[in-house]
Amino acid sequence: MIKKLIPILLLLLPLGTMAQEKDSLELALSEVQDTLGLAMPQMQDTLRMAATNVRPPCKFRIAVHGGYAYRIAKMPENVSEAERQYVQALKHGPIYGADASWYFKNDLGAGVRVSSMHAGASSYGTLIYNDGHQETGKILDKINIFFVGPQFSVRHVSRSGNSMLVMNIAFGYMQYKDAMKILDSKTIAIGGTVGYGLDFAYEFRLAEWLWLGAQISGLTGSIRAVTVDDGTKKQNIILDSDEKESLTHISVSAGIRICL
Known about the structure:
Helix content: 10-25%
Largest sheet: 8 strands, antiparallel, barrel
Oligomer: single chain
Number of helices: 2
Shape: elongated
Strand order of the largest sheet: 1-2-3-4-5-6-7-12
CATH class of the largest domain: Mainly Beta
């Protein structure tokens, strides 16, 4: 009987050894899979960053810029050539501005914008009084168009993280101020309205937090009433529909950006 069992045992021993080796191999494979499963996301992130070399975009952006603006309002009809040249001089001038945005997503942000356009002209003219008396002297206008309001910002950052395109949409308060001087008489006209703005900017990195940018901007709005102060009294004047003052202007500017 024992002699008969010996061949059977000899056959079962290799089977048992093979089963143990199979269990050990499956355990080793399982450990390798677990290790790769934990390391794979990190390896993918590392490979993705190495392939694109992306710098994380800044969360907070401050822009300060200056440039030149041009008002696109129509020229009044039935005016002399001298008056046309005078009005034309009041349609363009320097503009200064600043804005700040906080980006709650990589490409979306919100903030505030402020800008101030200046234009001026001077000439010599004749002032005719009610009694027919005339005086000739210097006529001067200094115009300021001021805007302040919230803005919504959209940006696209390059793969290297060293340049970006920015678009800002803003709305807020727009003020018109004209400081006039006719001979020795000084008058200030002020009016306000709701204004809307749009910017397109290209910016590139100079240092870790310092950028340089250039932009094309537009602001639009018009006033239908002004308050005129001649130093002795104030008067509210309602403008006719064909006399309303357009404040719409476009500008080209450049400046520095601070990205944190």
